[in-house]
Amino acid sequence: AAFQRAAGYFQFLGQCDDGKKVNETMSAGSGEPTAATATATTGIDRIEADLSGKMAAILVALCLAQAQESVFEAAKLSDKSNGVLAKLAIACADLYEEVHEKLSSSLRGNPKAPVTQERYVPKMWATTTFIKAAIFNAEATARVCETLVNDEETIGSAITLLTRSKERLESALRRAEIPTAPKPPKLVVEAAENILRDSIKFELGKAVRDNECVYMAKVPSYEALQRLHDDASEKVTNPLHSKFGAKMVKPTSGADIEVFLDPSNKDDVSALFARIVPEDCASSASLYADKVDRLVREQLEQLAFASDEARVALREMELPETYNALNRPIQLSEELDAEVKFFRDQDGGIDAMRETLSFSRDVSKHCETELEEITSLLDIEMKADGAARNAYGSHKYRALPSDAETTRWRRDLETFVNNSKLAAESDEKLRSEFARCEPILQMTTSESIAQNAPKLEPPMLLVEDAESLAKEVRLGLERIERIGREREEIEDAMKAVKASDDILPTLVGKMKSSVDSQTAQGKIFSDELGKYDELIAAAQNNTFAQADALAELRKSYIKFSDMYNVSSLREKEIKRDNTLREALRIAAELSRGIQQGVRFYGGFSDAIESLKNEVKVWCENRENERKRIVERLRREEEEEAERARMAEEVRIKTEQMRVQNERSVAHATVTTSYYPGSEYPAHHQLQQQPPPPSSYYPPPPQQQQQHYPPTQSS
Predict the structure, then answer these.
(1) CB count, 10 Å around CB of 107?
(2) N or C: which end of the chain has fewer CB within 10 A?
C-alpha cells in the first residue's frame, strides 16, 4: 500500500504544469496566498525543477514494480499455487522491464534528457531493475514449466522458455560483473545466482535429457514460439506472455492526493514554520539554493566534459597502451580476455575437450556392449523358450511365447542401436574436426597467447631520436594524468563547499536589520557566491591546461607513431585478435557438440541401464517360470509312465494267465483223448470204444493223415 501511495504522489507531481496544479490545490482553501502557501509554492516550484514528467514516470513505474513484488512475496509465503505465483511473477517482470526501459532511455546520454534526471537517478538502478526483471521471469518460467516438461507436445516449448530464462539471467549477471559498471545490491545478485543454479539450470538439464532420450521432440526457437503465440487462436504456445500476468497494483488516485494536499485538512504546520522563519528569508534561501545549484552544475558539467574530452583523445591515439607496448607486449582487450578466461574456466580449455572426446568414445563402447548384452539375454531366453516348446509341444508347454513379450524391447533395442550408431558417427566427426582444428585451438592457451603477443620494437637507426620521442610521449601522458587528478580535487572541493553552504542563518540575521530587503539580498548573495570564485577560476585554468597538454601530446604522438611504425603493431594486434576470436568460435562450436554428446550419453546410459535391469529381471522370471512348467510336465510324464507301466504289467499278467489257462486246457485234452497207434485195433474193438468226451479236440490234420488208416484203394 505504501508503494502504491508513493506511485500516486509521483504521478500527481508528474502531471503538474510547472507546479501550478499543486500550488492551486494547496491554496484552494484560502482566497489569497499566505506566507505558508508562498513557502509551499516555492518548494513545489523547486521540486518541479528536479522532477520532470519523465522522471516522475520512472519513479511511478519503480514504485509499482516494488508493490507488485511485495504482492508476489506475500503470496509465496501464503503457499499459493504455482499458477497464481506464475501470473504474479509475469506481471512483476513486466513492470521491472518497463522501469529498465525508461531508465535506459534516460541514462543513455540522450542530449534531450534533462540534466537533473541524469543527476538524481543512480545509474545502479538500471542494472538492478534489469536483474530483477530476469529474476521474476525465471520465477514464472520455473513454475510454468513444471507441467510442460511432462508432456511430449509441450516439452519443446518448455526447453525454449528455460533456455531463454537462463540466457537472460546470465546476461544480467555478466552486466553486474563489469568492472566499470555500477554494482547492484549483493542480495539481488545472490538471488539471481541461486535461482539460475537451483531452478533454471536444473530443470533445463532434466528436460533436455528427457527429450533427447525419451520424447525426441522438436525444440522451437523463442522467436518462432512468440510468433506461434501471436498466430494461435486456440492453444497457448507461450504461457509467459504479458497478457497472462496478474497485475495487482495501481497508483493512488489523484483525488486522494488532492485531499491530502488540501491545507484545510492538515494541522497549521506551515504557519508555525512562518513564525520561526520569516517569509522573505525562506524565499531568499530557496532562490539562493537555485543559484548555487545552477552554478555548481555548470562547473561540474564543464569539468566532466573536459574529462570526456581527454578520455576520447587518448582513445583515439590509443594511449597509453601504445607507449606501454615498448616495455611489455600488448595484452588482450578486457572483452577478449574475458572470453578466453570463460572458455578455460567453464569449458576447461582444449585439454578438457580432448579428455571429453576420449570419455565419449569409452561411454559409446560401453553402451554398445550393454546393448549387445541385452540382445544376448533376449536371444538366450528365446532359444530356451523354443527348446522347451519343442521338447514338450505347444499343446503342453502353454507359456506365452518369448517373442510376443519382447516385441517392445526389441523395438526399443533397435532404436537404441540406431541412436548409438548415429552418436558414434557424430563423435567421430567431432574427433576429426578437433584433430583438424587443434593447431588453431592451441592459440587459446596461456603460453601461445604470451608467445604471439605483439610488442613495439624500436627502430634500428636513430635510436636517440626515438628515445627522445618516447620520453616526450611519457611526459605528456603524465601531464594529462596530473591535470585529471587536479580536476577531481576541484570537483570534490566544489561539492564540499556546496554541502556546507547554509545561507539561512545569514539571511535571518542581516535581512531583519535591513530596510531594503532586495538590496540586502543582492549583497548577501554576492558575498556568499564569492566563495565559489576561486574554484571556478581553478576549473577554467584546468580546462585550458588540458587543452594545451592534449595539443602537445598529439604532435609528439604523430612523430612517435611514424618512427616506431605503430601501424604495423596494430596490424599484428588485429591479426592476433582475429585469429584468437576464430579459435574461440571454433572451440565454442566444438564445445556445443561435445556437451550435447555428453548430455546424450548421460541420458542414454541411464536409459540402457534401466532397460537392461528390466530385461534381466524379466529373463530371470521367465527362467523360473520355465523351470516350474518343466518340473510340472516332468512329473506329469513320470506319472503317465507309471500308469502305462502298471497297465502293461496288468496286460502281461492277464496274457500270461490266458496262456496258462490255454495250456492247462490243452494238457487236459491230450491226457484224456485217444490217439490210434501204428496197428489198428480190431474192428469190433474200435466199435466198442466209448465216445469221446465233450471237451475232445480232434488231432491236427497231419496226425490224422498219419494215424488214420488208408483207404481200400490204397
Answers:
(1) 16
(2) C
